[in-house]
Amino acid sequence: AQANVSAFAMELMPRITRAQVMDVLSSQANLAGYRAVIDASAEFGRAFPMMMTAAGTVPAAKVFVMGAGVAGLQAIATARRLGAVVTATDVRPAAKEQVASLGAKFVAVEDEEFKQAETSAGYAKPMSAEYQAKQAALVAEHIKKQDIVITTALIPGRPAPRLVSAEMVDSLKPGSVLVDLAVERGGNIEGARPGEVVVTPGGVKIIGHLNVPGRLAASASSLYARNLFAFVETLVDKKEKTLAPNWEDELVKATLLTMDGAVVHPSFQPQPA
């Protein structure tokens, strides 16, 4: 049989324990979260940690991370290592404990809808308009006090949710920095532009770099190569030293796009008119 398992298909890898070493999205998101903090610190122009000197005290930077998935958690950890005071938010209840474990404070409207806001695969569910309004009001008040805001929120198969409005951006102090890691999927921040660092009339910078893991190219390539190698190993008969995929393997089923000239992946079948 002629089959095709493409690099794009690696993004379809199921989120199960066995496939963690093959999880391209996680390996690259880790780097993106780290780099987002480094890019923010470069644009911020002030110190991250509190410094007590003879000439006075430099206050610690206040960093707010929106979306506590793989990228968000790495951003939290990196900002904490640099000495910032970190807060974070996410619509998934499980994120609260993860955020706290990294020494950050969790910020969210914790009502009944919040308690049900996670899919069985661990992704965030789209929230109701009522919840979004309540969360936006809480976040708007919180953002006013922040120096740096990093957004990482994505929902599979949908445009990135808008988390930060133009009014929220304008409420930040001059010199504050926002980093939008979802800018390639429409952006979490109003006013973010793909591939640009925008400076607002109020002196706030909005960073919209593309391919953020690629800004750490050597590390990104190394991790991606390990993801691919781990997957290819499952397709090889080590005894015979030949390519012998098991077409019933759940990893193969999830990532197989075409076979014998036909599209076989259920997500890419032609839709009825």
UniProtKB/TrEMBL annotation:
CDD domains: Rubrum_tdh. It comes from the Bacteria. It is an enzyme of class 7 (translocase). Its EC number is 7.1.1.1. It catalyses: NAD(+) + NADPH + H(+)(in) = NADH + NADP(+) + H(+)(out). Keywords: NAD, NADP, Translocase. The keyword DNA repair does not apply. Residues 41-208 form the Alanine dehydrogenase/pyridine nucleotide transhydrogenase NAD(H)-binding domain. Pfam families: AlaDh_PNT_C. The keyword NAD applies. Belongs to the AlaDH/PNT family. The transhydrogenation between NADH and NADP is coupled to respiration and ATP hydrolysis and functions as a proton pump across the membrane. This is proton-translocating NAD(P)(+) transhydrogenase.
